[in-house]
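Budget justification aside, the reviewers requested a transparent look at the raw inputs and outputs of the sequence design task funded under Objective 1. We therefore reproduce one unedited record. The lines immediately below are the structure tokens for a 356-residue chain.
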């Protein structure tokens, strides 16, 4: 059982979220936990130090002291500059995406850290701690795609009188893909939803989320991408590396000045030409196509994203601290006792290489 809980300021480029808002901290201190919050960690998300102090937290300036807590809760994966704080007995809870981060996986194993991931917690067939950030990322994808399409081909997503709207293709109609499609439709774009689940596609077309649907196959995707202005990749296999659903030749077939947004980039990306970018340097061009592959898209909306994340994780943080075997944590454990213990993550990393 954990007695102390640490909440840090994030160090990833452009990341302004904080894992727990003052309301969640008040709930956790009320449950008997000692909560250490780094000074200023919530300011960018609109939460003052005074709010955390009123919630019962101790405000700490020394980052090492916070890393010394029994359980450290983060938004994003620890960066190499933070690995020096790893130690046996430390528990970490955050978005880890280890299938796409073998070096981090090895560092956690070597240090004897017990690592739990938000994105692999499962409940009723869903991913309750990934869903709120997928929601925000999906909404953001339509906005970012529209902006960079204007910078590229000069196309307005919704067209105008006498001018047809832009053609948007969303691949993977989970939470992120559905919200991206809704956002693009809200700007009057023509939206095609692509997925392997025909029942899901049927429902999305019936309720107007998309204007057309396409059963996913390499050939079908290749045909539709040749006419696409904006492609949003949102293919996901929980815990695993994202599958490549769009190859480089298909990207090169897109019109010049079109845009790719890869929302699966945290898990390695689902578009072959994708590579991770940052909020301070979000795009690059390849084959005449603009690529937006930011690995922490919700970080640019810190107030909304922090509140949504905190509401989703607070009860699970409490369970991990006080009742670590609670069923609410099913699937969270990724690394323990020097081993990758989540089967899907282990398969993605190849346990022959990563088992201690």
């Amino acid at each position: 059982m954990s007695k102390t809980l640490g909440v840090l300021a994030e160090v990833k480029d452009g990341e302004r979220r904080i894992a727990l808002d003052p309301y969640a901290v008040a709930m956790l201190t009320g449950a008997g936990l000692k909560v250490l919050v780094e000074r200023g960690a919530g300011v960018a998300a609109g939460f003052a130090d005074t709010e955390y102090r009123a919630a019962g937290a101790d405000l700490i300036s020394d980052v090492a002291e916070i890393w010394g807590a029994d359980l450290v809760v983060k938004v994003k994966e620890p960066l190499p500059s933070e690995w020096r704080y790893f130690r046996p007995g430390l528990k970490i809870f955050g978005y880890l995406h280890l299938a796409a981060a073998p070096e981090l996986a090895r560092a956690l194993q070597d240090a004897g850290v017990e690592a739990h991931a938000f994105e692999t917690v499962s409940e009723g067939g869903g991913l309750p701690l990934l869903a709120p950030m997928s929601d925000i990322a999906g909404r953001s994808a339509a906005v970012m795609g529209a902006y960079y399409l204007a910078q590229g081909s000069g196309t307005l997503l919704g067209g105008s009188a006498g001018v047809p709207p832009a053609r948007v293709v969303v691949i993977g109609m989970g939470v992120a893909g559905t919200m991206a499609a809704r956002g693009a439709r809200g700007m009057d774009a023509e939206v095609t939803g692509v997925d392997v689940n025909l029942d899901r596609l049927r429902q999305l077309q019936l309720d107007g989320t998309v204007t057309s649907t396409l059963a996913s196959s390499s050939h079908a995707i290749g045909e539709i991408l040749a006419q696409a202005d904006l492609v949003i990749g949102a293919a996901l296999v929980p815990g695993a590396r994202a599958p490549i659903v769009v190859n480089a030749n298909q990207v090169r077939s897109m019109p010049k000045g079109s845009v790719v947004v890869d929302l699966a980039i945290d898990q390695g990306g689902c578009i072959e030409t994708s590579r991770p970018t940052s909020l301070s340097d979000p795009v690059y061009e390849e084959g005449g196509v603009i690529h937006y592959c930011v690995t922490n898209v919700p970080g640019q909306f810190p107030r909304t994203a922090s509140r949504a994340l905190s509401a989703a994780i607070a009860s699970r943080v409490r369970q991990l601290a006080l009742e670590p075997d609670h069923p609410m944590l099913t699937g969270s454990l990724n690394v323990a006792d020097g081993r990758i213990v989540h089967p899907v993550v282990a398969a993605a990393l190849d346990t022959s290489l990563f088992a201690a």
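The CA atoms of residues 181 and 287 lie 25 Å apart. The two ends are 25 Å apart (CA to CA). Computational costs for records of this kind are itemized in the attached budget.
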